[in-house]
């Protein structure tokens, strides 16, 4: 649920960044700006078909600069063909003939986050978003910025939100 800003943004087609997969919010992926329309950007998962592309506002909390995952201890899902332990942003961008999106474009980095008191490993009861009458035991698996990643205990990761 994003507001609709009226200004343009500084992202350009071909810029590389990291971001959350909107269908699998436990996965941070390598993304490329595929299109810019006003304040919106269409993001492409590197190594995957265009049918998985998605749109976000340029100030979305879901997009991060290259290297953010490594710096903050989150696993980055690499593009097909890249090997774990061998991925390096500068080499990757050079091989792709792309460019890394500059950090100043990421508005969420300049926003202070109020500590919530929630920590990974805490247990709670959570509502299944696809079946709201179902309330289940869950675990906080990550706290990123001002949001929590919830995992339903004994369920597949695809249900995380």
TrEMBL record:
Matching InterPro entries:
Mbt, PcG_chromatin_remod_factors
Q: Name one GO cellular component term.
A: nucleus
MBT repeat intervals: 1-79, 87-161
Q: Which GO terms describe its biological process?
A: chromatin organization; negative regulation of DNA-templated transcription
Q: Which UniProt keywords apply?
A: Chromatin regulator, Metal-binding, Nucleus, Repeat, Transcription, Transcription regulation, Zinc, Zinc-finger
GO MF terms, alphabetically ordered: chromatin binding; histone binding; zinc ion binding
CDD domains with a match to the protein in the record? MBT_L3MBTL4_rpt1 (cd20133)
What's the short name of a Pfam family annotated to this entry? MBT
Subcellular location field = Nucleus
* Name of the protein in question: LMBL3 protein
Taxonomic lineage is: Eukaryota, Metazoa, Chordata, Craniata, Vertebrata
